[in-house]
Amino acid sequence: MIELTGQSSPSVERSSPSRPSFRRRLLTVVGPALGGALLLLALLAWGAVYVALQQGAVDVLQAEGIEVTADIEYNERGNLEVDGHGWEEVHHRLADKRVDPVFVQVFDRYNRIVRASANIDSLSARYPEQPRASPRSSAWMPTLQTFETGGRTLYYLVRPITRDGQAVGYVQVARLLPKYSPVLQRYGAGLALVVVLLFGGLLALVGWAAGRVLRPLRRITAFAETTTSSDLGDRIDVPETADHETALLARTINDLLDRLEESFEALRTFTSNAAHELQTPLTVLQGHVEIALRRSRSAESYESTLHLLDRRLGEMVRTVRSLLTLTRLDQGEELSTEPVDLGVLACEEGEAAQSRAEDKGITVTMNTDEVWVDGQPDLLREAVQNLVDNAVKYTEDGEVRVSVTEEEGQAALRCRDTGMGIKAEDLPHVGARFYRSQEAGTADSEGSGLGLALVRRIVEAHDGELRVESIPGEGSQFELSLPAVPAPASAQAVDAS
Q1: Around Cβ 194, how many Cβ atoms within 10 Å?
Q2: Stated pTM of the model
Q3: Which of 185-199, 290-304, 306-320 has the lowest mean pLDDT?
Q4: In which domain, by residue range, is 431 found?
């Protein structure tokens, strides 16, 4: 057994330069996909942080605006009272970046300034004295609306002051635009490093997985490259740890080797038997010719030798013809079929065997019905002829009965004899090419051992079956079972007349 472990054969490492390896192809396909997926995840992560920073900046202004609005009162005279707010807080008084200044303006309904934080006056440039347009923010991306003043960039938020659903004033809150670009840059660099490490680690993992898959495949390839006809007994061992696909491939190759080994063995046997069957009559023929040529003989002696040669040559011709027929059937040659009356065919072959049976003192009894099958007439005739001849050949006393009936849509042709029979251990080999039992081989009969093999193969080519029953010393019964078909219109017209 060849195990799927260990180092691969150097011959397996050879690869066509025009065909990339599975590992390279996998990395070529998976690498860009992994890189794209990781890059997309990194961009999403970076974008999420950016949105969070933006939202945090907006939340600071919203919280300040809500606090200022909550401290403002609306008196009976229709004026805004803003003194309740803590205007003296340091981030309202100073504009220094260290205190994170917040610039607040309160406007009445007529957009006139009611109160402004003290840090606005410390700005060198003119600060807007009218409420600016409210910034628009999308549902997922907060927007920072900005303006420039005194060399500084501020972002702002305008919040209305409402009473009974009416706007009675506005609060405008501004703050220095936060500088979070360095944070985003550091975060982006960290993400890039993580992406590179993950990408390299995943590619290494893919390469390792590809190598794990390819190792047993290389072993299988090496085994297939080095296996010859003399190594057909070797098999690939499938370990329990093998993947399903690898194990399936190994088992499939093992099954293929089983079939190849069986075919090679059958071919060896067939070649040996064929050579033996052809060599024996050729040797006999050569011997008779040599004897006939040693000295002059009478015309009657030469005629006797010629008759013997004719009989032997006839046997060789039948053997070669049977081999050719088996070869055609093995090659799957399509049969030219037509309706055949199996009963009539059996009767004709039974009558043809009558003279040979009478010479041996046995009788041939026919009991046939009109049963039609779809088949090749010459092949079916050869199958029936072989059965009847075989029965007559191995029967020394008694009779041979041939019957044809139709049973449940099947045409059944039975040939029963009272001959020597077949032992139970020989029954499985009936129909094997060149096989002859010991009793048949020692009997006073000639044959190549191809008759029943030809019968079985012809029946199989017609989608039928050959069955054998036998009792040693009492006889045998061979049964051909073929699909029956309705009688053709021409036959029905003849029967009607």
Answers
A1: 14
A2: 0.50
A3: 306-320
A4: 337-496
